[in-house]
Inverse folding.
């Protein structure tokens, strides 16, 4: 084929002692330096942030965000967003966008959904209306949204789950992936990433990986982890399965975003991460700092003139005291969510910048140790 | 006395056909071009706005905001703010600040407060704790906050109220004003404004004006209007009483901020306005535009690609469609309040800039007519 994939991955350097990779993801909306943390904008907005503030995160800026097929399908509707010129224009975001397929959200509905070979029947959380999601519909929605990276519609097995269930589930995910690939036509505009499943069964993970890699897609995600299993078990699974993915394609560990998971994922060869944690924690008054978590509600900060993180140079830490941030949170002011979200996202984006630099300078393990020593318990 | 008042008013020009005035308010935190609309930051934050966004409102920026003695006294406490370096530093606002005295808020408590000659006993809306507010305490709190303009502790009579009540109330307000003046020492750092009361009784308004002007303060406010009385009655009262205030001092009409009230107030010689309306309306999905009100919830905007106000050049109108703003509001996203607040405040700040220009160019009545024709019903 002479067609060029919309999104390609370029490997720049591999760490000499770990699997950590330094690369670039080329997209229709700009180059993304990897490893990268992607802020989440579920409903076409990174919560409590103007897009310009998102673009200004860290020292280099955030250049890719994640949005959600399921939520945007239900409200305001993908056809509406398409008619308004696509998701980038609709939400005033000029960088790249990755859309989740809706698989994870639909399966999270529990009793409100029913899975069959054809797809998933579910009820809307907004108005109870009935919907039927299929791989083809997920692709149709993502085509309408116009995101740079679109995700396959998969089944995310819960943890724990028995082996037979997980085996069937990953096979279904592969059959659905083939249908997604067949449904997605314009590969020069948007790139479809496949999703590896297999729960915490290492051999099933490898089997899933082989099945999806056979389809020769421009990128691969690892789904179904960080769904309740112990961290050590997740690391073991990653140790085993990441090598099954081709070195010349991007690797995305879905829904993972605590600082320790970022370091452990990078160390095992992951390039992309996303998580709602930094903005959700922010709305609950919790900040991530280079010296660990700060719960701004805590009475000890009542008269604390120091910034959230003395080592942070973000807008929030340059301009506000913990005492003020505590006052905003206690007063239920919107600015509290705005400032804590900006700080938390900055912290992860900046940490990832520092991780990239450490890989370039072949001192990733040392940087990881320094970070862990300061951050403490996760 | 050789002491210089912290805040002084300079009259630049008076309209040839109305009482509209163009002036400058000199403050320790910069010059304020008048007439001016002051955004309200009740709890040490203009709701849903970063201070930089407030400073960037309109074409010339907002340079003075209002904050609230009563709220900040209860939470986080004035002594805490003083210890944190004062209100300007605490909230990262580099412009001027006017603090309301707490009088209006305390009187709004209804049955939860009791007035005596000495002051007002009331219960906290936060934890039910008992407090006793006096003119001296209001000044002490405002001294601690360090605002540029501090307001006298007054009694704001309700509407309607019988003549005897209003007469007694304005006399009490004057006695309290004298106590405020005696309690306020550092007049070079902060300026105390007196408040005229008198309800809708014109002769009582004039009497109140004479009493407070006798005290030779650096500025005067008109309180107790826009509390439920018909707009026409308010205009009549203003027609009659504004002339009682000295021409070389600033005149502030408290709590007034609908576009029509701004025009009518300016026409009657008012220099300063404040109102929570633009940010409160924003949080309810309502925008003010040059063509009248827009209720963003309305189904007619579902697929509307146009900005809130086609004649507005604010950040929001340059970057977002009504369809997107409607989606944000329906999805209960914080960005909805952020964007609508910024637009509404921009609209009032920019309208006031246009009013100032029209006075400079001696075409205020013409500009008022053009504005009313487009804006329609208030």
């Amino acid at each position: 084929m002479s067609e060029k994939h919309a999104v390609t991955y370029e490997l720049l350097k591999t760490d000499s002692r770990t699997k950590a990779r330094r690369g670039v993801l080329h997209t229709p909306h700009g180059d993304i330096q990897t490893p990268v943390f992607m802020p989440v904008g579920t409903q076409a907005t990174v919560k409590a942030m103007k897009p310009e503030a998102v673009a200004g995160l860290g020292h280099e800026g955030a250049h890719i965000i994640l949005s959600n097929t399921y939520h945007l399908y239900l409200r305001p509707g993908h056809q509406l967003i398409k008619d308004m010129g696509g998701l980038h224009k609709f939400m005033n975001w000029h960088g790249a966008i990755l859309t989740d397929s809706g698989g994870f959200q639909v399966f999270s509905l529990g009793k409100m959904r029913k899975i069959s070979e054809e797809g998933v029947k579910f009820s809307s959380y907004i108005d109870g209306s009935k919907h039927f999601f299929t791989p083809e519909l997920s692709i149709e929605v993502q085509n309408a949204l116009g995101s740079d990276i679109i995700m396959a519609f998969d089944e995310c097995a819960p943890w724990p789950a028995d082996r037979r269930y997980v085996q069937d589930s990953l096979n279904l995910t592969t059959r659905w992936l083939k249908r997604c690939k067949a449904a997605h036509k314009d590969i020069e505009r948007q790139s479809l990433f496949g999703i590896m499943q297999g729960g915490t069964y290492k051999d099933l993970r490898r089997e899933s990986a082989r099945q999806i890699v056979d389809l020769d897609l421009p990128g691969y995600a690892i789904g179904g982890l960080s769904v309740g299993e112990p961290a050590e078990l997740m690391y073991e699974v990653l140790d085993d399965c990441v090598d099954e993915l081709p070195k010349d394609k991007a690797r995305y560990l879905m829904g993972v975003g605590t600082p320790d998971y970022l370091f452990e994922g990078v160390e095992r060869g992951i390039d992309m991460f996303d998580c709602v944690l930094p903005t959700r924690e922010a709305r609950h008054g919790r900040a991530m700092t280079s010296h660990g978590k700060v719960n701004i509600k805590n009475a000890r900060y009542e008269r604390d003139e120091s910034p959230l993180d003395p080592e942070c140079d973000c807008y929030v830490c340059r301009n506000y005291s913990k005492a003020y941030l505590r006052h905003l949170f206690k007063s239920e002011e919107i600015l509290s969510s705005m400032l804590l979200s900006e700080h938390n996202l900055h912290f992860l984006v900046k940490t990832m910048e520092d991780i990239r630099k450490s890989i370039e300078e072949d001192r990733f393990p040392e940087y990881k140790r320094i970070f862990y020593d300061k951050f403490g318990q996760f």
Q: What stands out?
A: The radius of gyration of chain B is 20 Å. The mean pLDDT of chain B is 97. The first strand of chain B starts at residue 8 and ends at 14. Residues 276-378 of chain B form one domain.
